[in-house]
Amino acid sequence: MQAYKKLEIIIPKLESRLLVKLLQNNGIKGYSYWGGVRGSGDRGLQDGEGLSDTFVNACFVIACSEEDFNRIKEKLRAFLSEAGGVCMVSDVNWLIH
User: Fold this and answer.
1) pLDDT above 80 (res 94)
2) Is the distance from CB of 5 to CB of 92 less than 8 angstroms?
């Protein structure tokens, strides 16, 4: 087993490409992504209804080393401040196989 940080990031779907670019530019290669995430938060209900992705969220799950997390956390904080959204950080163990 190896210790990692798990990031669960929920952002407006329209901002997804910018987050992917931020991750790639900072050496984070792996992530899982779900579009069409519904929920409610500081910006109100994101119900996924309508003709565009304006009221739709996306969820990213990222496992990275603590070193990688420390390298991107302030850039991620700035991104979230502008784009909106949340980032939850957990300590996890990766089962090496």
Assistant:
1) yes
2) yes
